[in-house]
Amino acid sequence: MKDTQQGSASRLRFVQVGIVVALFVLLAALGVATYAWFTNNAAVNTNSVSVHSDDSSLVVDLGDAASGSWSSSGDVALSSNSPDPLTLYPVSTFDLNGFAECTHNNDAGEAVHFEQAADGEHFYHGWIDLRARVIGSGAGNATGAVNLYLGDSLVPSDADPELLRAARVGLKFSRAGQVVMTCYFALDGSDGGHRGDHPATRPGLDGYADGMLLGWQNGSLACANDGSEDFNAYLMGSGDSAMRPQNALLTMDQGTDYRLDVYYYIEGTDPDSADYLYGDVGVVHLNLFAVLDGQGA
User: Fold this and answer.
1) Hey, where are the domains in the chain?
2) What does DSSP assign to residue 52?
């Protein structure tokens, strides 16, 4: 069945709220090493784009639930413990909970020793709280859940193809301290992606095979299959006859606080695997599309 972004007889059936997170990335070659300078000054902007009720509207508040500081318009900065500027090094994760990084290669150049990467030190980690609610005279009669989708591509404009193959964007949604949805996206997985260019990895883990991801779990190094996804499966189409994607990033209850953690990192198991990335500037936009599936007054 085809869903459109136009109004219909069902009030509040489709309401769009744009949420934009701008991630600015600068990579520059310095000697034999390559550094990715990343600003943690990311911000979120919300704008009510379309409302299909005369007396009610859907808003998405962003801010800090603990302090009670919320905003439904303008720019809201993400919280982050990452330094500014931030140097990105290759790290590996299969769940966005624990990141591993190589600290030593053997004489053959194989990555053999790994430690847990400190949160936000060699990869970007920012977070913000969000909640969806219906306001107006008919708000009390509005029912249904709010589904979140990607509103635009995650691929940075004018970014070098090699950067796209190396960089990943991860999203983690939590409710009352419990993770309810985790997904991470390879911006370009063609030709096996950036991981296909890595030197051999020998982590000494039972069950490890080439192409698996590493991470940190229960206090030690662990491995798992690559669960990265194509972000297009979550991307809302454009135009009057746009198809809604099969997958939603998150299904939200109205009036409930959620936390969104945003990760930007170079997926890799060898510290030298990104040396060829240099002189590239890209901007990654995370644009979320919110839809209230229900009936209004």
Assistant:
1) 16-293
2) -
